Amino acid sequence: CEPTMTETTARPIETVLVANRGEIARRVVSACRAAGLRSVAVHTDLDVASLHVAEADDAVRVGSYLDVAEVVAAAVASGADAVHPGYGFLSENAGFARAVQEAGLVFVGPSPEVIELMGRKDRARDVAERAGVPVTPRHDVDDVPPDAYPVLVKAAAGGGGKGMHVVRRPEDLAGAVATARREAASSFGDDTLLVEAYVEGGRHVEVQVFGDTHGTVVHLFERDCSAQRRHQKVVEEAPAPDLDPALRDLLHRSSVALCEEVGYVGAGTVEFLVAGAPGDQTAYFLEMNTRLQVEHPVTEQVTGLDLVQWQLDVAAGRPLPLTQDEITCTGHAVEVRVYAEDPYTGFLPQAGHVLDARWGGQQGHEVHAAIEGEAHVSSAYDPMLAKLVAHGPDRDAAIDTLLDVVDGSAVEGIATNLGWVRRLVDSAPFRSGEVHTGWLDAYEGPLLARPDVAPEALRAAALLLGEPEDTSPFGRGDGWRSAGPPNPLVVHVAEPDGTTHAVTVDRGHEHADATARGRRVWATWQGQTWVLEQADAMRRTSSAAAGDAAVVAPMPGSVVALDVEVGDVVVEGQRLGAVEAMKMELALVAPHAGTVTHVGATVGDQVAMGHVVVHVEESA
To answer: Taking the model in full, what pTM does it have?
Structure first.
């Protein structure tokens, strides 16, 4: 039978254990502080020096954020009354919610039964149909009609784009199913799959919902999250632009009806795929997320409400503070996700030592950051470093404010998508609303080309590299002459590939934000960071450790598939295997046609970045 909502009395909450890490843990800790509640952080050894640990009132070490028994034990030992799961990790784990309640604590979220029901895409779809929500055609995994393509294969128990693949040809289905099953089993412990019709060019629109224990369910308007890469959201905004008024109303009403169908309590999101141009739009139910979303700040910006505070109030048994008619939407908000990844090498995740992370902006913006200043980014966790959020009276104004936020930000030491995502939101396709869920994956234009080093970055590097070690008046490198104007000071600045630029030092021109470490400079302009150094004619550039024939692990990770053996003949671009790193499966492909002469790993091996997994000798 379906779970039902029962009214409960208010239960005081004084201490909240935050079962998460990074920016969302900091966000919950901040909300607890504002509400006068004591917060307790959990952390692994990798996160002992993290900001969420430093900012909480107390902290407890755990071996893993995914260990239900250990996290619940930490909550009990810390004297917590409630557990806030954030998002990701255990946030949609019904077993965890049940264990929290069995320990006598309050779980900040819906009931275990509702999580179990709505957390599975297949069961949630059934509920949506009963609630009158439109859904896409569904097919059996082993019996997809030839005329049904393209279809979307997705993990029934999952989310976050993991275990999700678009299949356009019948001959590609088996491979996609195998990969999706493996990803689903690894990420969610359940390899059940769902196959549905894939809507080309659709937009991802989701409705924020909230329910309390007194029978009230409201919506807080909608968001558009269509800018996605490999089903991972990159940019989110509220409200969704260019929606037909009737469709917008349908999405709001059907989302509330869906929640009422199951007696939903807490924060949730009902996701839809919207197809068609304005004036002729239709919508299809995708799934429901039974937790707070990464992109909740854009809803907070346009409604002026604190969603985490609402979560805490509802968990304590209080009624929602506003009725539906009292909730308003003002202006527009846009959010970008800053990831530790290199957009110009296939968005490969990055890890390592961050020399400095600085987040800028102005009035009308928010920064939700996992790191600030010097930090270490591990390959063990999701690569999202921060969310930059801006609000304005309209969409263009919000985007313009967001550009200012990015321009005042810099991450030095590892590659990020900060400069790339700035170019994306300022691009004509995004500004005009052309971006749909498949747009980025099919895109092959200039956004994916690594930008040439900006003159402002070169000038900043020249300023820093031109500074002499002797800082006395006699050691100044300013070209001073007693009998005439100063000689221009020229510094030869080199890029990592050896390209050299002769740059005249000029303090009067605009230059990038930059930091020097020895002879090396990290210069950031409009979010894009270049690593530059003083040219040295005697210095040789290092060559790659592995030759062109070597297929190496792009990140530290686990080998999850090997499709070839020594002696196999392969063609250029053929998949040879896969490595899982930072929760992402990265395909290893043949660099050219040839013969496999060496396989340097087995499935299950942990390999370092640069490890030679397969060697392909090029055909003569």
So the answer is: 0.83
